[in-house]
Amino acid sequence: MTAASLSTETRFIAPGSRSDLLVGPGSRVQKYAQMGRSPDALAHPYTDIAHRAALLYAFATMLLAAFAQLSDWPTWVDLGAAAVVIFFFVAAIGSYQWHGLRKDTDNQFRNPHASLGWFMIALILGEIGGFAVLLVRLHLELVGVSNSTAILKPDRPCVVAT
Questions:
Q1: Phi and psi dihedrals of 108, rounded to 5?
Q2: Phi then psi for 160, rounded to 5 degrees?
Q3: Partners of 150 in the beta sheet?
Q4: What is the model's pLDDT at position 2?
Q5: CA atoms within 13 A on the CB side of 34
Q6: Alpha helices, DSSP H, located in the chain
Q7: 26 near 65, Cβ under 8 Å?
């Protein structure tokens, strides 16, 4: 399979994964710098979290790209669902980086900002809802409820469903 045979969604979503993979090593620099300056040789907890989250979200974003590739939804639905999830991935990593740089808290829920509750509700709904849109469509394809007989979209090489 070549890049040209990938769906539009996959070509837009996959670079987000590469960005997260670059943020991971970048946050490692911040982590090691904090470890070197700390008397207990530990980075701030949120710096640790940002580093791990960036690497984990990179792989989660690749899963989103794979599910969008296999989805038979219109391109705008796949891109929209993935964009919502990726937005919250980036926002979470940014928040962790911010707290890690400021070293202002080791628990953002202890003295939360007024908007944190609403943000967390939006994050939960956005991440679960965005992924569910892609997952449901793939499930419908796999169990044969779809209008088409192919798992992949018609403009791409496809695997025929039973």
A1: -70, -10
A2: -80, 130
A3: 160
A4: 60
A5: 20
A6: 8-37, 45-70, 75-102, 116-142
A7: no
